């Protein structure tokens, strides 16, 4: 087992100043009784709306925070207590915590990290060459980090995280703010690391494209609790109760003759997008009726985007959480 999280909760305590002399204690339950396991070599996405507890969970797994309750084992160690021993075997790229020295060029950070991780000089040279080629860093390797673009900096940051060949890589929003090219490069590299080098990846992202391209497993958090733990493929299957039909009419449609269960979600001139609820109607029947009454240029039938499934899960998780809280209040 690569990671085991057992009934973990994390509370933050805030003190609100009330007047001149009084302080009021406020406890924020960022993670509530969370348990899950991750096998080596997997790629797991932690997703959820703002404030769901994703970053807190990543910080708990890296040993930056200690749990208020419960226990965590990463590679057989307690990440908080064995943080320095574990640091040789894991790595993290967390948005606000840069490993790169701001006023120095990335190459200097790489040499420094080589010393920190006791990497042999010739091995470090070889490793740096590999990473510089992989992330295409050569043109800005000697420029101070403060002069790099966001995309260049993120590539340098991930390369720095990989210098000691970690077995697990934690990433908090690795593609945020990157342009299409830099983003695609980062995604391809992470995917490759996971699939070919067997590096376990745990990431948080708000981007469904990142999630689908890099990860096979997903945990959805909402208000600190797990609301769904699944393989992405299965999540798609079990939540797909609709199809999206895009029709390009030869001229403005006169009679769509829509069945109950089909609804227009978007229209742009002669191009119309319908959502068909598969529980109440048959997509083929919807299409045949439209074709029988109109001249049609093109039809495509697609699954709805992963984003809409995730929205649905957030909403149902949110409602279930609210219901549980209300029931607890009534019982109490
Ligand atoms: N250092 C802190 N002190 C107090 N409260 C905190 C602290 N860090 C996070 N929180 C609170 O804990 C909850 C979970 O925050 P967290 O950053 O883990 O969520 P998140 O899912 O990563 O959110 P986002 O998607 O916005 O980054 C939020 O209510 C947040 O305000």
From TrEMBL:
Transmembrane segments: none annotated. Residues 15-248 form the ABC transporter domain. Keywords: ATP-binding, Nucleotide-binding, Transport. The keyword Nucleotide-binding applies. It comes from the Bacteria. InterPro entries: AAA+_ATPase, ABC_transporter-like_ATP-bd, ABC_transporter_ATP-binding, P-loop_NTPase. GO terms for molecular function: ATP binding; ATP hydrolysis activity. This is ABC-2 type transport system ATP-binding protein. It comes from Caldanaerovirga acetigignens.
């Amino acid at each position: 087992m690569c990671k085991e999280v057992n009934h973990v909760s994390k509370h933050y305590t805030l003190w609100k100043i009330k007047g001149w002399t009084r302080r009021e204690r406020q406890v924020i339950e960022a993670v509530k009784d969370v348990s899950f396991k991750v096998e080596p070599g997997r790629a797991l996405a932690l997703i959820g709306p703002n404030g769901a507890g994703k970053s807190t969970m990543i910080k708990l797994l890296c040993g930056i925070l200690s749990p208020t309750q419960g226990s965590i084992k990463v590679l057989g160690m307690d990440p908080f207590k064995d943080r320095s021993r574990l640091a040789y075997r894991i790595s993290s790229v967390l948005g606000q915590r840069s490993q790169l020295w701001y006023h120095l060029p990335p190459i200097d950070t790489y040499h420094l990290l080589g010393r920190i991780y006791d990497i042999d000089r010739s091995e470090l040279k070889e490793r740096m060459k590999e990473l510089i080629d992989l992330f295409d860093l050569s043109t800005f390797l000697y420029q101070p980090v403060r002069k790099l673009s966001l995309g260049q900096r993120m590539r340098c940051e991930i390369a720095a995280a990989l210098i000691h060949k970690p077995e697990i890589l934690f990433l908090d929003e690795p593609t945020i703010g990157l342009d299409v090219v830099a983003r695609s490069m980062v995604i391809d590299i992470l995917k490759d690391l996971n699939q070919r080098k067997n590096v376990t990846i745990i990431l948080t992202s708000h981007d469904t494209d990142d999630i689908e391209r890099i990860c096979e497993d997903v945990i959805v958090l909402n208000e600190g609790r797990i609301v769904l733990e699944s393989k992405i493929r299965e999540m798609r299957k079990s939540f797909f109760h609709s199809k999206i039909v895009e029709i390009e009419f030869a001229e403005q449609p006169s009679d769509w003759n829509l069945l109950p269960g089909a609804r227009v979600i978007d229209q742009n001139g002669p191009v119309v997008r319908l959502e068909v609820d598969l529980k109440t109607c048959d997509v083929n029947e919807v299409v045949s009726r439209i074709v029988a009454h109109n001249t049609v240029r093109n039809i495509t039938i697609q699954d709805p985007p992963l984003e809409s499934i995730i929205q649905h899960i957030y909403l149902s998780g949110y409602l279930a959480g609210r219901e549980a809280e209300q029931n607890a209040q009534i019982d109490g």
